[in-house]
Amino acid sequence: MDLLVYLATQQGAVVTADDLIEHVWAGVSVTNDSLYFSISQLRKALDREDGGASHIETIPKRGYRLTRPVEGIGGDAPEAKDSTAAPDRPPAATVRQFRIPALLWPVAALAVIVTVALAWMQRDPGPIVIPPRSVAPPNAVAVMPFIDLVPGTDYTYFSDGITTETINRLARVRGLQVVARTSVEKYKDTELDIIQIGRELGVGTVLEGSVRKEGDRVRISVQLIDAVTGFQVWSDTYERELSSVFEIQNDISRHIADSLQLTLNSVLADTDGTEPQPAVNSGAIEAYLLGLEAFRTGSFEALAEAVGRFEEALRLDPAFKPARVALADTKLMLLNTGASYDRTLIDEAESLVRDVLTASPDDAAAHRVLALVHQWRADWVEAETELNRALELAPSDSQAMVQLADIKSVLGEFDTALQLLGRAVRFDPFGSGALMKFGNAQQRVGLFAGARESFERARQSNPSNPNNAWMLGKLQVEDLGELAEGLNSFLHSAETDPKDYEIAAYVGMTYLSLDMLDAAEPWRRRAVELGPDTVTTQALEVAYLAQAGNEAHAAALAQQAIAERSMRFGAHSMITGSMIIIAVNHLIENGQADEAVQLLEKTARRAADNGESDNPDFDARLSEEFLLAFADIPRRRLVALAAAYRAAGRQDLAAQALQKAVVGRLGSLAAYRENMRNEDYLVEAEARAVEGDADGALEMLEAAVDANLYFNWQIRLTRNYAFRALRADPRFVSLLERVRLKVEAEKAMVTQPVTLITTALR
């Protein structure tokens, strides 16, 4: 809306891109993408009504101008702008206040939403917010990475751990807005002054500190600085035994709260410092801080190390609650990253955090991790309750905000999810975790330019975390059609974490998408070696066998994987979905439609039970009516089930399955019909083909390719059970030729694949 208003005030004059960015995004560092996106959204809304010339004209190499006159409704008209660059502009109009026609009110609402969301979605990797000094509140605090003052030693893990613990304590102070550790980390060893840092982070107060560890003694010095004036507000030095080091964080929190006239929450207020706190085994503290360092790295190997460190801490001090919460968090992270498929880790994590909450019911971190347990069990109500409690106890916890956004996304509340993620990014503007989740949400609703920028920022903020480059690669190959660029992102990710079999599977599948079977082979072997019998590895194996001409073996492996595994099957649908296509296509073409029905019904029932039922009577007590009426089955499986029913002559059940697929599809996409992804069009095409609507299916397939459906196209298009009757259709043949030409062009951009493979696998 600000952009539209500013164009209107220029009375038809040509305005350069730099001028627009300077006036509309004043005080905020953004790229031209923000301008391009906003111009595009305004045109889409404004030009829809009359179908004539665009309301906003692009003047090549000069800028933009509003082509429609603006009606004034009062107030003095500003002086007409002198624009020698646009002598043919319309006459000046009164524009101090203007009336927005009724048809443009939806545009205004849209623009407000876009302005708020894109302020965080589409900024460059530089400073996110540069607010005027007068608006940076003193209760917005950034804790700079503490400096290790012990010469000739490598105690970085210790000073970093103390920084993290200090931030965690401050996050529990009501009225304090604390920047997350992942954002202040970029200022480690920086030469920027406090005033500049305060501007970049949008804070009014900065805490600096140093740590000197000598044997079992720790000396921590801190100073609180006004980030507007650069003057010191308060400073102090603490010296304790290592076993009492965490008392210092409570003391610092109290002093900051006193300095800023804030109120401590009940957890900290109950401990006034007059009574000694229970000492922690010094070896346990060392192990715990080393575990935090490994957890931050995020690779499979590092997460395994973190588990060992936290377990060591608990062996040395079973009552050490932070280590218990961190161990639970890490066990769930093993599942989340695919480092493990052992669902007993969920029970183990729950036991750990419930022990903590029994002793300390107001432990915010324990509530957040317990919410993760509920999320893994798809208990969204309990998860949301725990997260609300966590945020009540730790209002600055950006991780809890991100988790709550995850739940809102699952429930289809995308607007709320984006708001929560925007809030998380405000508390963690350079944190790769918050940025990655924000990118996920943007990608899900079709905001691909914003998603790309979020993933890029995440990668630059934390290049050692392989997931950041991996997520960028997924966006590139899945939604942008950039197979060569996506391959490079995957290779960088694989080089960062050479033991991650999922990354290896994506590299291999990208090579297969490029018709580079030989280049895919070492990645297939690497994935099998690192993650035998896992879903993503099996999916790569199925695709490789199919493209190598061994369809029967590929189909058998796909059927086995579908029958035996439901966990994480949907987490990598862009790869694992190929197994459903291969299995169903093979069974139907070989006259085994009944077997296809049995296979899909079984996996659907397992998915409905969240993959947790070991009851041998489970299949028997779920009828087809229950399956179709209540089970939360992904649309692709429903369409596949409909195809199998139809091939088996069970037309009534086929119709029911398709109807459920349609309801689910429209319900999830109603708010984003202009941002459908290629997978949405593909499933729509499958459904129409199964219904017998060839023209409708081809129309949707063409839309899917327009939306960059190139990844895994050999299976999703050419071997798809739904398109058997279309394979000889000239439109279908032409479409495949178009895809092949695009893939050949992408393949030509892949240089020295053998060198890249060697580097990444070294």
Q: What Rg is obtained from the alpha carbons, in whole angstroms?
A: 29 Å
Number of strands: 10
Number of helices: 36
Helix content: 55-70%
Outline, from the CA principal axes?
globular
pLDDT average, as an integer?
78
Distance separating the two termini: 52 Å
Q: Beta-strand level of the residues, as a percent range?
A: 5-15%
- Largest sheet entry: 6 strands, mixed
**Uncertain stretches:** 74-135, 263-276, 610-631, 663-673, 754-762
Classify the secondary structure makeup into a structural class.
alpha/beta
Could you give a short description of this structure?
The chain is built from 36 helices and 10 strands.
Detailed description of the structure:
This protein is α/β, with parallel strands linked by helices and 762 residues long. Among the domains are: 2-121, Winged helix-like DNA-binding domain superfamily/Winged helix DNA-binding domain (Arc Repressor Mutant, subunit A, Orthogonal Bundle), CATH 1.10.10; 133-269, 3-Layer(aba) Sandwich (Rossmann fold); 545-611 and 618-748, no CATH class. It is 60% helix and 7% strand. It contains 36 helices and 10 strands. Strands 3, 4, 6, 7, 8 and 9 form a 6-stranded mixed sheet that branches. A two-stranded antiparallel ribbon has the order 1-2. Strand 1 (56-59) and strand 2 form a beta hairpin. Helix 15 (380-393) packs antiparallel against helix 16, helix 20 runs antiparallel to helix 21 (483-496) and helix 21 packs parallel to helix 36. The longest helix is centred in the C-terminal third of the chain and has 19 residues, at 651-669. The radius of gyration is 29 Å and the shape is globular.
